[in-house]
Amino acid sequence: MIKRGFAHLGVFFLFLISLLPLPLLFFFARLLYYLLYYVIGYRKKVVHQNLIQSFPEKPASEIIQIEKKFFRFLSDLIFEIIKMSTISKEEALKRVKFSGLAQLEAHFKAGDSVLACTGHYGNWELGTLALGLSISAKTMVIFKPLSNKVFESWFDKMRTKYGNIFIAMRQTLRGVAAYKNEPTLLCFASDQAPTREETRYFVDFLHQPTAALLGVEKIAKSTNRPIYYFKVTVIKRGYYHVEVLPMCLNPSDTKEYEITNLHFKFLENIIREQPQYWLWSHKRWKFKPELPQ
User: Fold this and answer.
1) Is the Cβ–Cβ distance between 138 and 209 less than 8 Å?
2) What is the pTM assigned to this prediction?
3) I need a labelling partner for 204 at 20 to 30 A (CA). Which of 72, 86, 111, 288 fits?
4) Which of these, 259, 258, 278, lies nearest to 268 by C-alpha position?
5) Where are the domains of the chain?
6) Which helix (H) or strand (E) holds 280?
């Protein structure tokens, strides 16, 4: 009960912070960067190890520079997500611009649904909020629920306030079935890490065997819905461009794991362009393929 009370207090405090303008929040973000990187050292070892393993060709000095840039961006991202609690439609659309949405609208006009892939790159939360305001079909997002139900409720209200529908990962098939008679855009953050028990396939990603969820591929092949990749580019602090790229327009013709390999290759190419904007603090490589006995 006490823990729940502190969580409610924390949510109220976050709401108050969200009322401040983003330029002021970015000032606090820079202070947070110094705290996270130089004082607390939040997941600093995890980030450093992930970068070394992913870019073995880069010198130590460049790894350190990417590491610092990542922590600066992470600090900005934290306050950008807090701001989403009270952000207006106008500001969300000002900060996230899209190109290529006409491709999706052509499918929707024909009565067809589409699948979307992206990764935990840039501000994926703000991107999905703005996406729902930018297309005619329902935007449905697959997500992994938080363990803290108070913060989960806060996130849910923030994410869905402009009409987006969020579906827990384990309810994906039920969510697809519920909206099968109308055009939808079903979005996957396809770099989510499965548990060891869920892992059926490892993909070669950033020089490492990487456990991959197969949800995108399974849904795509069973429904033959076209898949588009949403490439995020950070334009400047707090501003993003999202390019809609055709990834696989006829999934039923693909081989096993072809779609999974493809969306990881899209993400890897994006990360290599500007590595500091991916979520390096995530313990993405917690386990490796088991060696044959």
Assistant:
1) no
2) 0.93
3) 72
4) 278
5) 2-277
6) none
